[in-house]
Design goal:
nine-stranded mixed sheet, two-stranded parallel sheet, single chain, alpha/beta, 11 strands, 2 domains, 447 residues, DNAb Helicase, Chain A, Rossmann fold
């Protein structure tokens, strides 16, 4: 139990704030009274903060008078505190108090978990959600605010500029589609990026294209596939990397066995890709499973959720539910330093217009999504709308990634290609290789 509190350190910190009231502001900005183990110390700290807010003297007489009225004063504990040696640099002391408070909270949480599971017989998903929320609160003990001076932010900005100059490009996480990266620059940790389109327009295809690129750069990826099976996701990833058509992969024959085997080997050995597949999952369970992955795998920087419609919404007010989901996703992304990509479906409004390009108003529950998203991308293929009974889409068709919202930059149209056989987006202007149309021919190598 000795490692769960240290009364001497608590006394030293409180004595320092008592002798130098200016230290109290820094102390109150970082911790609450709950972090102290001794009840008298908790009451004393609350009283000192209260007096400070009322612009009254923070001395023994005022403290004693207020605490006596409440029945909180302890003469012996006060004498022990007044005999403690004040300190000037309290950082290490505050960190120690916060660390011991976290440990006590974790010990208490363990007891609470057992009670909920055994005695109250709560469902595991509800317990997991409660645990996740409580863990966040525990880990935030000692960091009540993270306000910094303007000078510190300037230094961070200059450091980012220096790193960008050395690298010759914007620092962040990219899509691999050059026109989109030129428009956005790079995704930043904590960004909420919404990828929205009508069915079959390319939401999942853009996800797998970006996933393959991210993995090739050594970044970890978590995919929560709430609609498509993990096996289908993997088939698309292998097709994207190998250039092999999905039709050939389904038939068990490939046109380039070496490239196919290299792609399979890449994904078989990858420890950076994580896939969850479960439909209609509540937001607290989705978040809890993701957070578990982020804690164990700090290299994960891309989190894809495919898609919003399949996150279970228990309430009846859908816009409010969507708003809660997007805010929770933003919070998790910021806390764990990942870029969150939320796939979403459009309503049918764009299909009624001559110009089929999507607009922000085409988003389902657009107000909630548009408010929280940092970037909104609309994949668009005009060739999809030009199909008819006699004309199929080209093997490789021009496509667009339309940036409808960009909180830190400009919006606009980003040109690229879409290769239907591999369901992958490719860079505009690069060499386009035509593919055999006789998929699965008998003389192709077997897988």
């Amino acid at each position: 139990m000795d490692n769960l509190y240290n009364l001497n350190i608590e006394r030293a910190v409180l004595a320092s704030a008592l002798y130098d009231p200016y230290l109290l502001d820094d102390l109150a900005a970082r911790i609450d009274s709950d972090v102290f183990y001794l009840p008298f110390h908790r009451h004393l700290f609350s009283t000192m903060v209260e007096l400070s807010q009322e612009e009254l003297p923070i001395d023994e007489e005022f403290i004693r008078g207020r605490m006596v009225k409440r029945g909180e004063f302890d003469e012996v504990a006060m004498l022990d505190l007044l005999s403690a040696n004040p300190i000037t640099n309290m950082d290490a002391y505050i960190n120690d108090i916060a660390e011991k408070s976290r440990k006590r909270s974790l010990s208490s949480l363990a007891v609470q978990i057992k009670k909920e599971v055994v005695e109250e017989d709560e469902e595991s998903s509800a317990v997991v959600g409660s645990i996740d929320k409580r863990l966040d609160e525990i880990m935030n003990i000692g960091s009540k605010i993270n306000a910094k001076t303007a000078a510190s932010y300037v230094e961070e900005m200059k450091e980012d500029m220096r790193m960008a100059e050395e690298a010759g490009e914007i620092i962040g996480y990219k899509s691999g589609i050059s026109s989109l990266d030129m428009k956005i620059g790079a995704f930043q940790e904590g960004d909420l990026v919404v990828i929205a389109a009508r069915p079959s327009m390319g939401k999942t295809s853009l996800m797998t294209t970006m996933t393959d690129y991210a993995l090739s750069k050594g970044h970890g990826v978590l995919i929560d596939s709430l609609e498509m099976s993990g096996k289908k996701i993997m088939s698309r990833l292998v097709a994207t990397r190998s250039g092999e058509s999905l039709q050939n992969i389904k038939r068990g024959r490939v046109s380039d066995l070496d490239r196919f085997n290299a792609a399979v080997k890449f994904y078989s050995k990858s420890t950076l890709l994580h896939i969850h597949e479960e439909s209609y999952i509540p937001i607290h369970e989705l978040k809890a499973k993701a957070v578990q992955k982020f804690r164990k795998n700090p290299k994960i920087k891309y989190w894809f959720i495919d898609h919003l419609r399949y996150i279970k919404k228990p309430g009846v007010n859908i816009p409010n539910e969507i708003n809660e989901i997007t805010k929770e996703l933003r919070r998790v992304g910021k806390q764990y330093g990942v870029v969150v990509f939320l796939l979403s479906q459009l309503n049918r409004a764009n299909e009624q217009r001559t110009n089929k390009r999507a607009m922000l108003s085409d988003l389902r529950e657009s107000g909630a999504i548009e408010e929280d998203a940092d970037i909104i991308i609309f994949p668009h293929r005009e060739s999809y709308y030009q199909r008819n009974m006699d004309q199929r889409e080209p093997v490789v068709a021009e496509a667009e990634l339309n940036v409808g919202k960009n909180r830190d930059g400009e919006a606009g149209i980003c040109k690229c290609y879409f290769r239907g056989s591999t369901t992958a987006f490719e860079n505009y202007g690069e060499v386009v290789y035509e593919e055999a149309t006789n998929y699965g021919h008998a003389d192709m190598p077997r897988i």
